Amino acid sequence: MKIVVVGQGGREAALAHSFRSHGHSVLVTPGRAGIPGSTVVSALDLTADLFVIGPDQQVVDGLADDLRAQGKNVFAPGRQGGQLEGSKVFMKAFLKASGVPTANYVVFAQGHSERARLYLQDSAGPWVIKTDYLAAGKGVLVTHDRQEAIADATAKLKTGAIVIEDVLPGQEVSVMAITNGRQFELLPFAQDYKRVFDGDKGPNTGGMGAYAPAEGIVTPALVRPLVESILTELNHQAIDYRGAIYIGLMVDEPHIRVLEINARFGDPETQVQLPLIQNDLADVLLAAAKGLDLPPLQIAGAAITVVMASHGYPENPSSGDVITGLEQVASITDSIVHHAGTSQNASKQYTTAGGRVLNVVGLGPTIARARHTAYQAVERIHFVGQQYRSDIGLKH
Ligand code: AMP
Ligand code: GLY
């Protein structure tokens, strides 16, 4: 079939790769020079059998509704379902209504910084301060420092509402479900490495790497009831949800609590989950988009992805540095390089153009083998100021 993937990062490159490997023709919009099949034409002007929307912003903006209004098959929720990601206040109230455990929280409306200050003065930390609104991965601060918490809350309240919640202990796991609105299929669980430096040090990022399957943290049997409760509540609120649900879990046995819900596939989790799916992913996503029964997923193998980021990421990423070694990596069996933040200069060399530049994926029968392959590939690639974590896949 012909498939349009909306987006231009590593997640969309991985989706396109997966579709192409099953013989489908794929357009990625807007895409980028290093992502095959890229086109700058708006998704609304394209024809295809299936549209898959990657990024949060386009989901929250309701691109799926606009495409469905034109009679297209879309794998992504519309504006209503997108609220789960677009508003933390909505998401927290939704979780409460569905009976799914989450951190205790309070909401402060835009501009109410004096109230937030009084709350932070009187409550015991640590605190998690989250913007209600999308903030390009920079919306969450976890801190023990009261003054830092007050300053952060005050700054965030200038733009919109905030949620202040308790810090939850435990191990994080990324759960992805594909749903047709009635039934769901779980992808293999993944773990994401959010901090910029080895050993989970330094500031939070959009994700410095991931591996799948993440085993030994939580079982599908414990997770399924949570997803069922979320689907029941979606139906109760008459929200037509056909797409991916990303559930960020914090597991602290016997407690399993939801940190967040995203209304899309994870990035970089997708890059390690999709290669484990043996089915033709296009068939699964088209069935979900049409509200038809989902085929069971067949899962095998392991994958890790290492994010190569530019100098200064995440605060102040540099751009324009020439990337070398990509041709050599092409010959490493079981490795894939997805472009996430690259551009091409006048001499057709790939250059850095964003914080997270490349996603280097290694595949194998085990995480150890996949890890070996991924780092073998990483070592062949070079650009000035490159940063990557050397411990991806070690915490499994
Ligand atoms: P979110 O955007 O809600 O996913 O938050 C980003 C990251 O902040 C999560 O992946 C966690 O690592 C951390 N985080 C968010 N909420 C909490 C919480 N209540 N307790 C501990 N860590 C959290
Ligand atoms: N990996 C985190 C996210 O996709 O939101």
Give short descriptive properties of this protein.
binds glycine, globular, 22 strands, Rossmann fold, four-stranded parallel β-sheet, binds adenosine monophosphate, 29% helix, single chain, 4 domains, five-stranded antiparallel β-sheet, D-amino Acid Aminotransferase, Chain A, domain 1, 396 residues, 12 helices, alpha+beta
Descriptive report:
The protein is α+β, with helices and mostly antiparallel strands. It folds into four domains: 2-76, Rossmann fold (3-Layer(aba) Sandwich); 110-160, no CATH class; 169-290, ATP-grasp fold, B domain (D-amino Acid Aminotransferase, Chain A, domain 1), CATH 3.30.470; 302-378, Alpha-Beta Complex (Glycinamide Ribonucleotide Synthetase, Chain A, domain 4), CATH 3.90.600. It is built from twelve helices and 22 strands. It has helices at 10-21, 56-60, 63-69, 79-86, 88-98, 113-122, 146-156, 220-236, 269-273, 281-290, 326-329, 367-380; strands spanning 2-7, 25-30, 50-53, 74-75, 105-108, 127-131, 140-143, 162-166, 171-179, 184-186, 191-192, 195-197, 201-204, 209-212, 243-252, 255-262, 302-309, 319-322, 335-339, 342-344, 350-353, 356-364. The strands form six sheets. The chain has a five-stranded antiparallel β-sheet. Strands 2-1-3-4 form a four-stranded parallel β-sheet, with helices on both faces. A hairpin with a 5-residue loop joins β20 (342-344) and β21. The longest helix is centred in the middle third of the chain and has 17 residues, at 220-236. The protein is globular, with a radius of gyration of 20 Å. The mean pLDDT is 96.
